């Protein structure tokens, strides 16, 4: 089979790929463990002692571990339509106002330990995450729950504090994962890297120092749910950088690699004539943005943030750093999500030094404005530093800003951001679920995960509740568009780009086209070992 790039359709659902990897699409159980490479790092520290606790974890890497091991009532297998029952046999709203949601558990559910799962375990798990209120902010996904009620061993009823048509999606996220009260304390997080659940795999982590170097996922014999694992064991191996990961793939030490490959590496793989490795190019919903601590003196004045929005040249940024692997983004809600608008382009148009200067002059801001843009050095891939160098260049060349850039490792970066040390900082966002609300509430609502001080009463009191209320997400677009317009005016966040996602896989591995959905959720159960073409 000749080396090729497999391109999946640029639509939200990934149910039907244009081309599949060689071998049977169903793969099969058994055979050697499939080894997957990643640059995600899993580190425990005094600031983040419980990185894999479902009540704490809130980044794409840790969620991708939990999705294999901790079962949720609902799930999103393969595509990105409505979530389907997983640990539940059925779930539905039982009222016309989307305020009461009832689930019935599958019969015979067990944790990997063999202990039976009851409705009380679901209640314990949900109430635990809500009560702990970890500083990651993940508990906010459950903020519309007023009360969790159980009836018998199999029925769980969620009473909501307001209409929330997106609630089934939230029950598919790892914070709603079902855990055993024998393993998890009700009042505190579980330190370290042990994870116990009822998902398709059990987990064993190889730890050196305070960092996981390899995670072994073994098929859970007690698993009972919607998913059908096509392998018996998968090893997730962490690498220091994309180059080391790529070298391991070339040598055959790993079978597949995903995030985060460098742009240069992706281009090289796309142009390669290797017979053994396929590059799968799929649409993605990852975005990158700048966030502002609007209480910080340097950016407290709205005009400073608006001037930056007026100056940033997204097209040049993407072209210089990411090429065809990303697209300029003019709203926090990416293209292909219902409710997307080009709010920032509508307000600011093309980049303009003259208009930026006028904004600053009208507000009486002295130039050049001195700022530091902060970024993480080891979480979003090797292109992050070049990206911030390009932003620095654009702002400084205007003469209106004097910008420095400063990088920090992920664990230190997160801590500093949460403690308000940064005025401006860069983040990536992978959606909790494929809906516009998950690009807005986590940043703009009360208890937002970045702890941003920005608060808009219309957004929090009227528009977000309106957006959640509508079961028809197209109908919700009016409120969602209004939110995007307010964000473009006030600029607490500055969207930059949205990117594609890539998987490089050896020819004898099947299911590579399904291993990531558009939200970058890792679906290791889709992988099998077939026959190379």
From TrEMBL:
Main location: other
Protein name in the entry: ABC transporter substrate-binding protein
Domain Solute-binding protein family: 83-448
Record organism: Streptomyces bluensis
SUPFAM superfamilies given in the database record: Periplasmic binding protein-like II
Superkingdom classification of source: Bacteria
InterPro entries reported in the protein's UniProt record: Peptide/Ni-bd (IPR030678), SBP_5 (IPR039424), SBP_5_dom (IPR000914)
Signal peptide: 1-20
Keywords noted in UniProt: Signal, Transport
Membrane-spanning segments: none
Family to which the UniProt record says this protein belongs: Belongs to the bacterial solute-binding protein 5 family.
Compartments in which it is found: Cell envelope
């Amino acid at each position: 089979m000749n080396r090729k790039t497999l391109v999946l359709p640029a639509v939200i659902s990934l149910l039907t790929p244009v081309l599949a990897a060689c071998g049977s699409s169903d793969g099969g159980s058994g055979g050697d463990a499939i080894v997957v490479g990643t640059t995600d790092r899993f580190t425990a520290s005094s600031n983040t002692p419980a990185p894999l606790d479902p009540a704490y974890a809130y980044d794409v890497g840790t969620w991708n571990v939990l999705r294999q091991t901790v079962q949720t009532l609902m799930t999103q297998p393969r595509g990105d339509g409505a979530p389907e029952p997983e640990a539940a046999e059925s779930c539905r709203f039982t009222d016309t106002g989307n305020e009461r949601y009832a689930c019935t558990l599958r019969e015979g559910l067990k944790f990997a330990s063999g202990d039976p799962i009851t409705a009380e375990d679901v209640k314990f798990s949900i109430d635990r995450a809500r009560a702990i209120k970890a500083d990651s902010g993940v508990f906010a996904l459950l903020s519309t729950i007023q009360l969790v009620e159980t009836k018998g061993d199999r029925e769980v009823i969620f009473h909501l504090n307001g209409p929330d048509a997106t609630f089934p999606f939230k029950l598919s996220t790892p914070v709603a994962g079902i855990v055993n009260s024998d393993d998890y304390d009700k009042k505190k997080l579980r330190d370290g890297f042990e994870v116990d659940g009822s998902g398709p795999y059990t987990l064993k982590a190889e730890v050196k120092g305070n960092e996981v170097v390899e995670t072994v996922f073994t098929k859970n014999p007690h698993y009972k749910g919607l998913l059908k694992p096509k392998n018996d064991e998968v090893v997730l191996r962490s690498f220091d950088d994309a180059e080391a990961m790529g070298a391991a793939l070339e040598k055959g030490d790993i079978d597949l690699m995903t995030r985060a490959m460098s742009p240069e590496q992706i281009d090289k793989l796309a142009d390669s004539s290797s017979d053994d490795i396929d590059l799968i190019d799929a649409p993605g919903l990852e975005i990158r943005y700048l966030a502002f601590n609007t209480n910080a003196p340097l950016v407290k004045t709205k005009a400073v943030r608006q001037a930056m929005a007026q100056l940033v040249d997204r097209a040049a940024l993407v072209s210089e750093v990411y090429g065809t692997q990303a697209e300029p983004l003019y709203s926090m809600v990416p293209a292909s999500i219902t409710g997307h608008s080009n709010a920032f382009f509508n307000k600011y148009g093309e980049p303009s030094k003259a208009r930026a200067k006028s904004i600053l002059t009208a507000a009486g801001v002295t130039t050049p404005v001195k700022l530091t843009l902060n970024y993480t050095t080891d979480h979003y891939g090797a292109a992050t530093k070049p990206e911030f160098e390009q932003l620095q260049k654009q702002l400084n060349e205007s003469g209106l800003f004097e910008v420095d850039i400063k990088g920090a490792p992920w664990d230190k970066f997160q801590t500093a951001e949460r403690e308000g040390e940064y005025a401006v900082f860069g983040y990536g966002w992978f959606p909790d679920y494929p809906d516009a609300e998950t690009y807005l509430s986590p940043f703009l609502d009360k208890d937002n995960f970045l702890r941003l001080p920005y608060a808009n009463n219309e957004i929090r009191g009227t528009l977000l509740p309106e957006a959640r209320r509508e079961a028809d997400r197209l109908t919700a677009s009016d409120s969602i568009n209004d939110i995007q317009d307010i964000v473009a005016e006030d600029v607490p966040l500055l969207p930059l780009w949205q990117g594609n996602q890539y998987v490089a896989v050896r020819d004898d591995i099947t299911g590579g086209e399904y291993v990531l959905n558009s939200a970058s959720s890792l679906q290791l159960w889709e992988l099998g070992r077939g026959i190379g073409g």
